[in-house]
Amino acid sequence: MKFKIPKVKLLYFDTESRPLTYLGNDFTTSEITAIAASFGIDREINVWVLGKDDPRCMLSRFSLLYNVADIVTGHYIRNHDLPRINASLAEYNLPSLKPKLVIDTYNDLRQIPGISKSQESLSEMLGIKSPKIVMSQTKWRAANRLERVDFTRERVIGDVRQHQELRLKLTELGWLNPPKLWEG
Fold first, then answer.
1. DSSP per-residue codes, 143-161
2. Per residue in 75-101, pLDDT tens?
3. Pairing relation of β-strands 46-49 and 71-74?
4. Cβ–Cβ < 8 Å for 125, 111
5. Ramachandran region of residue 76, left (φ > 0), alpha (ψ -120 to 50) or beta?
6. Using an 8 Å Cβ cutoff, are 123 and 116 in contact?
7. Among 3, 15, 142, 184, which is least packed by CB within 10 angstroms?
8. Which domains does the chain have, with CATH numbers?
9. How many whole angstroms from its chain centre is CA 28?
């Protein structure tokens, strides 16, 4: 007897953001300036960038991809990207992200003493080919002022590409703990 095993829809994504307001005690809120998402290494990367795309449209289109995914994956997304997306959705009076299984290559990485958990460091150590797109202070200023949204676009796409390869390598090595449910 043959079993048909359904293919899991795994959504890789990343966001970029810029400082927005002070809430007191020097706590700074942020605004999402870009979102990139893809269903696989060999698949198209969807990207939306503030200054080129309307924020409501950017968030709504990402939410559509998020909703059809079985699992989402990124680097430090449980503590950074997902909460910021939900905050932005609330600000624009859009529905929150639903609970979802998450593979977070930062938070789900097994403890390896003395090893940096940054995506850039792990990728270099493991020989990942896709590079981290480095941004100087000058480039970040131009990107965050929306003068050069191409910098932000290149950065967010690069992070998704690098993450795709990194997650595969970490999985192959058995360095990731199982996915966890994120409930916002």
1. HHTTS-HHHHHHHHHHHHH
2. 999 999 999 999 999 999 999 999 999
3. unpaired
4. no
5. left
6. no
7. 3
8. 10-176 (3.30.420.10)
9. 20
